[in-house]
Amino acid sequence: MAGPQVSRSVNNNKRQGALSRAQAQFCPEGHAQSLCYVGNAQHGFGRHVSRLTKLKGRAAVANAKMAYQDYKRLFAGPRWDKLAAKGAKPQRLLWASTGTKNKDYSDVLYVEELIGPNTVNTVPPATLDAFRDHGKTRDSLEENIEDARHVLEELARSGISLDAITTELVKDGVKQFADAADKLYGAVAHKRAASLGALIQPWLRRTPKSLCQ
Question: How far is residue 21 CA from its own chain's centroid?
Answer without folding.
Answer: 24
